[in-house]
């Protein structure tokens, strides 16, 4: 096979001591955990086998090999608005050419530790503890109606983005986590798809519509009505199906369902649902990959 050299960039996380490769292209790439021995950024040219073989990107983290389909590069069917919040975002997908990366206040430091430079930095910067410099700063007053995450969401919507990934927006203060779940409903009501990701979990909202999952999934899925009643709720392909049911915000009937390996869907005829499921960190939701 023809062989060439492919540049791969990444960073060594100071706390976890893990090496992350942030972008690599081709049929097969190997990144060794010893690529960087000191904290900070690294650049390394790695062997790349062109043509034939499996379309696989291989990333080795702390000596453990994890193989992803090449689609993990970013197989989203549309550009993504990727928002980094104040909590540690964990593994994130690569940033593609047409994506918009926004740091919401303290998310700037998390991105900097990963060697990532956001297109925009949004917030009042009380969490960051300083006002960053540059021409990509959108500064807001501390006393305001919007959270920093909501400011980032509105910024992405104003620029025409319809698919949002929110990292570093789970955990920490419970009120902020709840506010970020509400932000998913805001996106749904503005015709956009939003996903909270992190800690092995994904969450999204659906209003008067359907959320579908391909066959082959395993793990837990939970469905909640966030407000009043959700009518015409139907769950297919799950261990505990429902048909044309009513969920209310006062009783957690939809908690702890399970994927069965079959294609599954969650739909609601009249109302809104918050849907949460197990999702491998660093991977894109099925709903964005087509």
Structure overview:
Helices cover about 15% and strands about 40% of the residues. A hairpin with a 2-residue loop joins strand 5 and strand 6 (about 65-70). The protein is globular. The chain has four helices and 20 strands. The longest helix has 16 residues, at about 175-190. The model is unreliable at about 1-75 (pLDDT under 50). The chain has helices at about 105-115, 150-160, 175-190, 285-290, and strands at about 5-10, 20-25, 30, 40-50, 55-60, 65-70, 80-85, 100-105, 120-125, 135-140, 165, 195-200, 200-205, 210-215, 220-225, 230-235, 240-250, 255-260, 265, 270-280. The chain has a ten-stranded mixed sheet with strand order 10-9-8-7-11-12-13-20-15-18, with helices on both faces. It has a four-stranded antiparallel sheet with strand order 14-19-16-17, with no helix packed on it. With about 290 residues, the chain is mainly beta.
């Amino acid at each position: 096979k023809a062989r060439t050299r492919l540049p791969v960039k990444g960073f060594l996380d100071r706390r976890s001591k893990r090496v992350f490769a942030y972008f690599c292209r081709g049929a097969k790439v190997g990144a060794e955990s010893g690529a960087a021995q000191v904290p900070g950024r690294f650049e390394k040219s790695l062997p790349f086998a062109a043509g034939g073989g499996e379309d696989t990107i291989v990333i080795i983290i702390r000596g453990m090999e994890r193989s992803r389909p090449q689609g993990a590069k970013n197989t989203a069917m549309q550009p993504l608005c990727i928002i980094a919040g104040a909590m540690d975002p964990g593994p994130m997908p690569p940033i593609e050419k047409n994506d918009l990366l926004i740091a919401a206040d303290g998310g700037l430091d998390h991105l900097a530790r990963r060697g990532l430079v956001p297109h925009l930095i949004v917030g009042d910067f009380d969490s960051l503890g300083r006002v960053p410099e540059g021409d990509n700063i959108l500064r807001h007053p501390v006393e305001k109606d919007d959270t920093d995450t909501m400011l980032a969401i509105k910024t992405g919507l104003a620029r025409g983005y319809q698919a949002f990934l929110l990292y570093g927006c789970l955990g920490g203060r419970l009120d902020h986590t709840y506010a970020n779940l509400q932000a998913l409903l805001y996106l749904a009501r503005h015709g956009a798809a939003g996903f909270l990701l992190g800690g092995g979990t994904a969450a999204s909202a659906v209003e008067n519509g359907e959320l579908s999952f391909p066959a082959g999934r395993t793990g837990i899925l939970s469905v909640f009505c966030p407000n009043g009643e959700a009518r015409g709720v139907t769950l297919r392909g799950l261990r505990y199906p429902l048909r044309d049911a009513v969920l209310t915000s006062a009783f957690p009937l939809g908690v702890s369902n399970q994927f069965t390996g079959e294609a599954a869907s969650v739909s609601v005829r009249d109302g809104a649902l918050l849907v949460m499921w197990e999702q491998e960190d660093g991977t894109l939701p099925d709903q964005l990959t087509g």
